[in-house]
Design a protein that fits this description.
The protein has helices spanning 24-35, 95-102, 105-112, 116-137; strands spanning 10-16, 44-46, 52-54, 61-68, 71-78, 80-88, 148-153, 156-162, 173-177, 183-191. By secondary structure, the chain is of the alpha+beta class. The two termini are 29 Å apart.
Length: 198
């Protein structure tokens, strides 16, 4: 996997982040610097499902962040709807059971064909990819991990099927990378119009 995603319309920041602390206090100064506003003037709110939203005059921008272990990943893009996820690589002894319960049957079969070490990393890849798209969509994991299906295409995950509420699979772009040793990240986005609607 590459160390950083290439050819993305997104600015990314990787921060050290104390475990179990909220990410928003850490990302606000970076968003303010990038958007050229004071902290008190940053129109950052949350949607009904907890998705971060930027209000006027920055509604053409979208921001998202994720933290795991000691790392926090922030993404900011313009004229796109984005989601980002970072996961610390660690043993996941229940990965097969979680996949069988929450992933699509095609993904479960792909994981089942791999040895244990490869399967655990592939599970993390799928989890990051799904969470990135679902965060971008705004519903999060409660929407249903089985409602979007990824396949490995030459070493890169590609969205091949999804619920109609997510649009068409080809609407979405996914990038995966290793932001620092022991972590995996995924960034997903799709284009929006002037009002921020996909």
């Amino acid at each position: 996997m590459p160390n950083r995603p290439s050819e993305t319309p997104v600015r990314l920041w990787l921060l050290r982040h104390p475990r179990r602390e909220r990410g928003e206090p850490y990302v606000r100064p970076l968003l303010c610097e990038a958007l050229g506003c004071d902290d008190d003037d940053l129109p950052l709110s949350r949607g009904s499902e907890g998705r971060p939203l930027l209000g006027p005059p920055y509604q053409r921008f979208d921001a998202g962040w994720s933290h795991s272990g000691d790392a926090l990943l922030l993404a900011l893009g313009e004229a796109i709807q984005l989601g980002v996820d970072i996961e610390q690589i660690r043993p996941r002894p229940r990965a097969r059971q979680l996949a069988q319960r929450f992933f699509h049957a095609d993904e479960v079969r792909w994981l089942a064909a791999q040895d244990e070490d490869a399967m655990e990393f592939s599970f993390v890849r799928l989890w990051c990819a799904k969470e990135a798209v679902l965060k971008a969509h705004g519903k999060g994991l409660s929407f249903g991990l089985e409602k979007l299906v990824f396949a490995d295409n030459g070493g890169e995950l590609q969205l091949i099927r999804c619920d109609f509420a997510l649009g068409q699979p080809q609407d979405w772009t996914l990038r995966e990378w290793t932001p620092l040793p022991g972590y995996h990240a995924a960034l997903a986005w799709r284009a929006t119009d002037d009002t921020g609607t996909p």
